[in-house]
Amino acid sequence: MFFILAERVYLKNILLHLLNFVYNLVCEKGELWMIKIDLITGFLGAGKTTFIINYAKYLVEQGQKIGIIENDFGAVNVDMMLLQDSLGDKCDLEMISGGSDIETHRRRFKTKLIAMGMLGYDRVLIEPSGIFDVDEFFDLLYEEPINNWYEIGSVIAIVDAKLETELSKESNFLLASQIAKAGKVILSRSQDASKTDIDQTIAHLNQALKQVQCNRKIDNDVIIKNWSDFKDQDYQEIVNSGYINEDYQKMHFKQEEAYKIVAMYLELKDSLMMITGWN
Questions:
Q1: Contact 187, 238 (CB under 8 A)
Q2: In 76-210, at which residue ranges do the beta strands (DSSP E only) sit?
Q3: For residues 95 and 98, what is the distance between their CA atoms, to the nearest angstrom?
Q4: Which of 44, 185, 241, 272 is deepest in the core (most CB within 10 A)?
């Protein structure tokens, strides 16, 4: 067992040295091309996958080479199937599945980014799980060799225009962590929401930020528009939205339990889909 682990460490070090060698070689030639990486956050069911389908189609039409990482749990990934059906071979789709714990999942995530680092993408879109802490994304991009290949493009938060107001303390923290650094907050299904619904949702977002002692206030950074009516200028605004460097107070809770609950939910949804054909 010891020799197997030693061999894995040895091979990993060789890979890191190889990646750094190629990186330095490219730098010397002045041809370094950093891959933009966009993070699309939001609770389960907020509309992340639908947004990514529309967003990716726009980027492909602009001539960009796009990779998508579906970073979620579940034996049968429904979102991945929807992306494949909608985008076909227009961009590369990758999935990080399984993992008995969060650390295993993060390790697979990093390995996937390393593997995609030299494939010539202009932009990589990441759809994380619904319990993702955005700071973990920033931390990962500063690690070697990831920081040699990628730079942060935009952080985009998708929020249901009729957001459920009765959320747990943990859910409100995750909501705040997702919107605190978002360059744009995009409301989904706004065409089905009343002005009162939208006002209540925005007020809830700002209250969630206040609860984690974040100074940011969501106002002009919200896009409220039927996604079917999006024009090129709307997507270009999103592409250039970047991210906001705002701090907030961390909340320590058993994320492992949240991970297990989400995994159980998705396994149940997957089972229903296979049995009934529900989508």
A1: no
A2: 92-96, 123-127, 150-160, 184-188
A3: 10
A4: 185
Nearest C-alpha neighbor of 240 from the set 180, 138, 155: 155
Contacts with 160 (C-beta within 8 Å, 6 or more apart), sequence order: 43, 45, 46, 47, 187, 188, 189, 201
Statement: the pTM of the whole predicted model exceeds 0.85: no
Q: What is the H or E stretch that residue 269 is in?
A: helix 255-276
Q: What is the largest CA-CA distance in the chain?
A: 64
**How many residues would you count in the chain?**
279
- Closest C-alpha to 129, from 273, 255, 272, 252: 255
From residue 150, how far is each of 36, 102, 106, 115, 254 by CA, in Å? 6, 23, 17, 12, 30
Residue type, 107: R
Mean of the per-residue pLDDT values for the chain? 78
Output phi, psi for 150, to 5 deg: -120, 150
pLDDT at 112: 87
Within 10 angstroms of residue 217's Cβ, the number of other Cβ atoms is 12
79 Cα distance to chain centroid: 13
Between 255-276 and 78-87, two packed helices, what is the crossing angle to 10 degrees?
A: 60
Give the CA distances from residue 91 to residues 65, 69, 113, 148, 253, in Å, rounded to whole numbers and listed in that order: 7, 11, 16, 23, 37
Residue 18 has pLDDT above 70, yes or no: no
Cα–Cα distance for residue pair 117/57, rounded to 1 Å: 22
State the alpha helices, DSSP H only, in 142-247.
Answer: 146-149, 169-180, 195-211, 232-239
- Name residues whose C-beta falls within 8 Å of residue 1's C-beta, 6 or more positions apart in sequence: none
Q: How far apart are CA 202 and CA 200, in angstroms?
A: 6
* Percent of the residues in the chain that have a pLDDT greater than 90, as a whole number: 37
Half-sphere exposure of 272 (CA within 13 A, CB side): 9
